[in-house]
Amino acid sequence: MAQTSELDVLPLLEKIITANSPVSLAILVFAAVIWIAGGNLLISYHFRRVGNKRPRLFPFNNFNRFEWAVLLVLLLTVFASFLIALSINEK
After folding, report:
1. Closest by alpha carbon to 78, among 44, 32, 40?
2. Does any domain span residue 43?
3. Using CA atoms, how far apart are residues 24 and 31, in angstroms rounded to an integer?
4. Which residues, 6+ apart, have CB-to-CB distance to 41 below 8 Å?
5. Rounded Cα distance, 84 and 63, in Å
6. 24, 81 in Cβ contact below 8 A?
7. Is 10 part of a structural domain of the chain?
8. How many angstroms separate the CA atoms of 80 and 2, rounded?
9. Which of 15, 31, 52, 63 shows the smallest number of beta carbons within 10 Å?
10. Are 35 and 74 in contact (CB under 8 A)?
11. What are the φ and ψ backbone dihedral angles of 64, each rounded to 5 degrees?
């Protein structure tokens, strides 16, 4: 039987942090915060608009155009932030 090696997280995390510049890490943290906070605000706005008290239901069934636009802006902001962080890291 083949042995699987355990993934050692701390050296991997240290390698990721030391390989990137502090500015690119700050931009990546900014993108993660924007994605998590913006997504939570969008879903809570949607559930408040619909009047649904059960947040575990799949929310994308009846999004309106505004909510789809906000989701698209969130995606574009996060992808642009990742691209900026990668371009800063390459210099």
Report:
1. 32
2. yes
3. 10
4. none
5. 30
6. no
7. no
8. 42
9. 15
10. yes
11. -95, 180
For residue 40, the enclosing domain spans 20-90
Q: What is the pLDDT of residues 7-18, one digit of tens each?
A: 677 887 788 778
What phi and psi, each to the nearest 5 degrees, are found at residue 62?
-130, 50
Six-digit token string for 43 = 């879903």
**pLDDT (tens digit per residue) in 42-73:** 988 988 888 877 666 667 778 899 999 999 99
Distance of alpha carbon 31 from alpha carbon 80, whole angstroms: 9
Residue 3 lies in a domain: no
